[in-house]
Write a structure and sequence with these properties.
The complex is a heterodimer of chains A (393) and B (107).
Chain A (H helix, E strand, L loop, with lengths): L3 H18 L11 E6 L4 E6 L4 E6 L9 E4 L5 E5 L4 E6 L4 E7 L3 E7 L5 E8 L2 E6 L5 E6 L1 E3 L2 E2 L2 E7 L3 E6 L4 E6 L7 E6 L4 E6 L5 E6 L5 E5 L7 E4 L23 E2 L2 E5 L5 E6 L5 E6 L4 E6 L5 E6 L7 E5 L4 E6 L5 E6 L5 E6 L4 E6 L5 E6 L3 E6 L9
Antiparallel strand pairs in A: 1-2, 1-34, 2-3, 4-5, 5-6, 6-7, 8-9, 9-10, 10-11, 12-13, 14-15, 15-16, 16-17, 18-19, 19-20, 20-21, 22-23, 23-24, 24-25, 26-27, 27-28, 28-29, 30-31, 31-32, 32-33
Chain B lengths: L2 H17 L6 H19 L13 H4 L4 H10 L15 H12 L5
Classes of the chains: A mainly beta (393), B mainly alpha (107).
Amino acid sequence: MTLMSPMKRILSLFLAALLSACAAPQLRGTGDLGLIIERANGHATLIDTSARQPYARIDGLGDLSHASAVYSRDGRHAYVFGRDGGLTKVDLLEARIVKRVIQAGNSIGGSISQDGRLVVAQNYAPGGIKVFDAETLELLADVPAEYAPGQFSKVVGLADTAGNKFVYALFDAGEIWVTDLSDPRRPSTQRYPAGKQPYDGLVTPDGRYFLTGLFGEDGVALLDLWQPEKGSRKILENYGRGEEKLPVFKMPHLRGWSVAQGRAYLPAVGRHEVLVVDVGTWQEVGRIPVRGQPVFVMAQPDGRQVWVNFAFPDNAKMDVIDTLAGQVVHAFEPGKGILHMEFTPRGEHIWLSARDDNKVLIYDTASFARIGELAIDSPSGIFFTTRAARIGF
Amino acid sequence: MSANRFLPLLWLAALPVLAGEAEPSPARQKELVHLVRQDCGSCHGMTLRGGLGPPLLPADLRDKSAEGLAATIYNGRPGTPMPPWKQFLSEAEALWIVEKLMSEFPQ
């Protein structure tokens, strides 16, 4: 039996190759698939989280030094946003590029609409957002972030919300914009004040609140998207008051993954802390000391634990916070240059990219044991298809 | 391996510091290139075409003073997100980075 099992595997691989060669692809779902960005060489590796193995590699994605991906609602297509403004639609089942456009000079990411019909890119240069047909990647609308005559801002924190509205922050303008794309060729935009240098944003998992973290001052700007007429307001204004910030060697990232058990776990800018905020009252309810400046603060799907990685020079470390205990319960050093993490759909495993080890590491979230690793060239972002069904991803 | 062989080497090593042209060792150069591409790259882009921070390609830096740029790396730029890197490199290494950025930055 022990000899048969690898034999069977080889046989099934051979059959799969044979089937795909006959243009009659093997039927399968997409719920356990994903992609890993190889930031140095313009590749993405397609992976299967059940097999815990790569199954294909896609070439020709351009400059992926800060790349991210969103998924079509059926989980079959990934839209990969590259630093060079490339937007590439990848078919995960056929393992090929369907379409690729260069839509900007310098891009930071993107988002997909509630109905799955629109893909929106957020750009640094030229500053603004661009709206594409998810099917064809045809440009439908261009919304420059022109906050004053002739002044364009870099766009950060783009998130999708209900009614094909998109919300984002303007780094240079210190504003939050909400663009309504219910009629995609005729966008309309509302503007709200945010604060100095918003660096990233998140929408809560229910799509109600947009938060943007501020780099140029203490605090976070908050907009209730169900009652936007009430305007934006500032929370956590006092978390660093009177204390000198540490130099920040990498901007933290925000996304709806930070919300767990009715609380948001947010990276403190320039501090070795995770801030805990009650999502009902938006009051600070705690600060958790960690071993570096947090970059990603990501809750497991069940919200029981929150995993934290850190900016240079602490990017070999990770801390795990138990949300019941309200403190770090596990601290480890999985590898060099831990850039990103992603949970399997129900959170039994976490995948970590260790850029400088050229590895992706797989850990069991209950036992903290390393259960696997993949050789991947300079890995950065890891994106699983479960994102297809989540607001703000 | 006599002492006379070291003396001129020491002298040669000291001179570029004074002239502002210190050449880090090959191993250290590799570390600095990695630092710039990966960690400076978080904001300036791995290909140095810019991101939240400005682009750092030769054409972008042409009209700037090398000493001024090295001081920005070493001390940071208050009021912007640019942090000081002095805990990770020397002033001479900052200047070496600037010179490489202004000509052609190694892969």
